[in-house]
Known about the structure:
alpha+beta; 2 domains; 25% helix; ATP Synthase, domain 1; nine-stranded mixed β-sheet
Amino acid sequence: MATTTFSIVTPEALRFEGQAELVIVPGSEGELGALPRHAALVTTLKPGIVRANTVGPDGKTVVRREFAIGPGFAQVLPESVTVLVDAAWEKPEVDVESTRAELRALRERPSNSEAEVEAARISEQVLAAKLRVAGGHE
């Protein structure tokens, strides 16, 4: 099985690094799937879910991984996919109830300026992605 090196990097830490058969990122113009030996490109990412079919510890099994992410960038090279974002969460890291409460509060908060409306829209997309990754719907 052909693989590519897949990593998710935030300002705080290398959130994930491993081998993957397929990585799907939420590009700003739509979802982008990257297989090993993909043509080189850089794209902006919108808040959403990064999905990857990663290679398990035994080197044979495929493990499906999902990460909720905020906006950022992805660099795809023939031998690697690197996702650069402000934050990323996997299912065990998401507290569904507090995320739901945060989303409710965000939706109830008035936004006055265009910048506030845009910031609220992005925050809402990030929180919704966290809930989807955790199985809390939205």
